[in-house]
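A quick aside before the break. I want you to see a complete sequence-to-structure record at least once, exactly as it would be stored in a machine-readable document. Don't worry about memorizing anything.
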Amino acid sequence: MSVVLACGAIGGCGGHRGDLDHPVPTFSATPGAGAGPARQRDTLLPADCADVITGTNMSALLGQPVDSVKEQAVIGQPAPTVGQLERVTCLYQPAGARNSTPSVKLNLTAYTTDAAADAQLTTNANAERSDAVSVEEFTIGTARTFLFAERGMSVLMVASGRSAVTVMLRDGVVRPELGRQVMIDLAQRVLPNLVPPRPGSSR
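That is the input. The structure line, written in tokens, reads:
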């Protein structure tokens, strides 16, 4: 299934990135590192994108004026055949913008097992190659990662444990030489907020 949206040259986009207000966490960081205090929930994935990364923190990450970016959540359907339990899409776009292409789109997924998440990453990456101008495969810590440069956007796919996130960054949002690092920073902020351990749960 091909992903739709992100930033052209694998480097990034256009604009200025200021200093971040918060250090970038590692994958061992406590949940909520990119979004503020973590809230108790009954789902594997946050249902509110403010619990993934707030618009204010996204503004800082992208070098935009504070509170200039707003978040919106779209709850997706599970896909039992591939072990996908939950799916949430987070859209981040300038405040006041309507019916415009989001600056950043996050596809968040939770799976039954680490193996299911890793297998679906391979499937999605293979599908994405047909739209890519260039492809880079690497790791962020122990997480397998793919970065695609496509027409009008860049796409970063990461799987870590039972979680996966696809980051899509639109052209022109950050300067081209900053895009790769911004997307990696964003993935590192988001992943600790996904699929928290649930003792005693079979999921």
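Two observations worth writing down. DSSP finds three helices and seven strands in the chain. The chain has a mean pLDDT of 82. We'll return to this after the break.
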